[in-house]
Amino acid sequence: MPRPILDDGLWALIEPLLPPPKPRRIRHPGRKPLDNRAVLTGILTGCIKYCLGDYAQPTARDPVQSTTSSPKRKASRLR
């Protein structure tokens, strides 16, 4: 599990507000339930990265060019 964003005190306040997991069926049980704290940490991490603008940074596959500075966009701005 990644480093928890929520400390134990805050998690103790949030955990009782979450609904209990539904009972699993016997014949077709489906996916196993995930840990609620890990799911909430992932959601908050995504929100934090989106708000800080990390989504627009260059990716590992294309380290030279970011998503906001493509040559076509630069050429269209010069016209």
What topology does this entry show?
Layout: H1 8-14, H2 36-52, H3 71-78
How would you describe this structure to a colleague?
The chain is mainly α and 79 residues long. 41% of the residues lie in helices and 0% in strands. It has one domain. The longest helix has 17 residues.
Q: What amount of the residues lies in strands?
A: under 5%
Assign an overall shape.
flat
The major pleated sheet works out as:
none
Distance between the termini: 50 Å
> How many domains would you count in the coordinates?
1
Question: Structural class of the secondary elements?
Answer: mainly alpha
Q: What is the count of β-strands? A: 0
Please estimate the helix content.
40-55%
Protein name: Transposase of IS4/5 family
Region (Disordered): 58-79
List keywords for this structure.
79 residues; Transposase of IS4/5 family; mainly alpha; flat; 0% strand
Brief digest:
With 79 residues, the protein is an all-alpha fold. It is built from three helices and no strands.
